[in-house]
Amino acid sequence: MSKPITDESQIISVVIGFLYPFMLLLGFYVIINGHYTPGGGFQGGGILASVFIARYVVHPVEDISDTRLHAFERLFLALILVAPILLLFNGLIYRYPFLQVHYLTLMDILIGLQVGLGLAVVVDRFAFFKGVGPSWR
Predict the structure, then answer these.
(1) Domain that includes residue 105, residue range
(2) Alpha-carbon gap, residue 52 to 59, rounded angstroms
(3) Cβ(55)–Cβ(19) under 8 Å?
(4) pTM
(5) Range 10-16 average pLDDT
(6) What pLDDT digit, counting tens, does each position of 57-98 carry?
(7) Which has the closest alpha carbon to 100: 84, 113, 112?
């Protein structure tokens, strides 16, 4: 007699579980090396969001708060706006040229995390449609 078909696939679960660390490693590698190679914050953030999407494919349970993800996304967006004001617009980058690499790496990290969280919120909102209402800001 065959086993009943369940919602969760054992094969997909094992494969995605094996790929998680590699997906995270590739995402952060693309983000960190974005100012030297093609890629950067946006592409790395997309790769990091694929970890969230893969998690949803394996285990489609709503146990992550989209409001918390959205709050962190807003935090990184604020940091993306503040970093150039502090480092670029006041002339620190021009006075201290060695800060350019650090500034670009910082911006890639902030953009990557912001994009990754933003895409995770989008996937969460589509996967567990809650409608549009006062809870969404």
Answers:
(1) 10-127
(2) 10
(3) no
(4) 0.76
(5) 84
(6) 887 777 777 788 888 888 988 999 998 888 878 888 888 888
(7) 84
pLDDT at 27: 92
Per the structure, how many domains does the chain have? Answer: 1
Query: Does 16 fall in a domain?
Result: yes
| 117, two tokens | 């969280």
HEC letters along the chain: CCCCCCCCCHHHHHHHHHHHHHHHHHHHHHHHCCCCCCCCHHHHHHHHHHHHHHHHHHCCCCCCCHHHHHHHHHHHHHHHHHHHHHHCCCCHHHHCCCHHHHHHHHHHHHHHHHHHHHHHHHHHHHHCCCCCCCCCC
Q: Angle 99-127/41-58 helices, nearest 10 degrees?
A: 30
63 vs 17: CA distance, rounded Å: 18
65: its two tokens: 């708060």
Q: For residue 43, what are its two tokens?
A: 């592409």
* Start-to-end Cα distance in the chain: 51
Residue 134 lies in a domain: no
Contact 65, 52 (CB under 8 A): no
The pLDDT value recorded for residue 133 is 53
